[in-house]
Design goal:
With 109 residues, the protein is α+β, with helices and mostly antiparallel strands. It is built from one helix and three strands, in the order βββα. Strand 1 and strand 2 form a beta hairpin. The chain starts with a strand and ends in a 9-residue tail after the last helix.
């Protein structure tokens, strides 16, 4: 539920009310008791991200991004080396099977 700002046009008293969006605006001033209160247009609330990984501007901390980049680079280098070893193993098995079948790649059954 939002908080609304109110101001009395007679006595200039200002206050906040915690109300439902569907609630009718308050008309009676709590200070002078007259029906001259008006709901003010406020700036709204800003978003605040809490936790060590966020700033108020929704950007990650520099230590987090550096760690993520290091993890990404380490993951890429290990996947490249495993791909290279699996490719070399695949090529040797293909050459031995190709030479054993008499040069044809399809076997007839």
């Amino acid at each position: 539920m939002p908080t609304y700002d109110y101001k009395c046009t007679v006595c200039e008293h200002q206050w906040e009310e915690f109300q439902s969006i569907t609630a009718k605006p308050i008309r009676k001033c709590p200070e002078c008791g007259k029906l001259k209160a008006r709901r003010m247009i406020g700036p709204g609330a800003g978003i605040i991200f809490k936790g060590s990984g966020f700033y108020q501007t929704d950007y990650r901390s520099s230590s987090y991004t550096k760690g993520a980049e290091a993890d990404k680079k380490a993951g890429e280098s290990s996947s490249k080396s495993s791909d290279a070893s699996s490719r070399s193993g695949d090529s040797s098995s293909k050459t031995s099977s190709d030479s054993g079948s008499g040069g044809s790649s399809k076997s007839s059954e």
